[in-house]
Amino acid sequence: MSRKPMMAGNWKMQKTHHEALAFVEALPAQTRQEDSVDMVICAPFTALTSLQHAFKGSRLQLGAQNMYFEEAGAYTGEIAPGMLLAAGCSHVIIGHSERREYFQENDVIVNRKVALALKSGLNPILCCGESLSEREAGGFEAKILSQVELGLQGVQMIPSYTERVVIAYEPIWAIGTGKTCDEIEANRILGLIRDHLARLYSQDVANKIRLLYGGSVKPSTIEAQIQMPHIDGALVGGASLEPGSYADLVRLTQQFGL
Ligand code: 13P
Questions:
Q1: Is residue 216 part of a domain?
Q2: Whether the CB of 48 sits within 6 Å of ligand 1
Q3: Which CATH number do you get for residue 187?
Q4: Ligand 1 touching residue 253 (CB < 6 A)
Q5: pLDDT tens digits, residue range 163-197?
């Protein structure tokens, strides 16, 4: 069974389109052409079309960080999946903990977004993860599995979807704190998620879906993380902003992840 590793950068609310272009120009040519790792940069909406052009001729893939759950209409300020596709996106992050915390996204909203992303042809990166207080209280694994289950509710996992659905486990206490969840524990949680996918769908489906870890991933942590059996890649915030650091993450994933 082989799952292609993924190195997804989440730039969050950082980089103008000028800065985004400077990032691509500074990436080593070798990184731009790396084909053994799925490289996805999830940029702010305003940088997408610039990156769409800058990524031409490279293997870099483009992602958004959010989308709305309707195809069009009177929803001031929102972005539809068709707009993201036209701007060159193949991926979209859905249900990031920052969206859940600051923008009141719940599992119902997340589920509608996942379903519409898949129907529209975008590959969703569905995020889940517990807060520090939830971890300390115990029983947090049930919350993570419920986020996955509710996020995917009603999704018929047809064969083509198993390669398109990506799930990212991002413990909230590890995001932006420098406190990486150790790889054994991250692998344990992703293993629980995979077991749950096997219960929801089948073992075959569970074996094919890629599971990422996110939370203070850096070039110095990725080597150990990517060697764990259930960690198929990473969703990286801070360390994806700098071209040298992102290139290192891709190189180390290629070197140790296959
Ligand atoms: P950091 O890598 O900066 O901790 O962010 C993780 C994250 O939230 C990616 O989506």
A1: yes
A2: no
A3: 3.20.20.70
A4: no
A5: 999 999 999 999 999 999 999 999 999 999 999 99
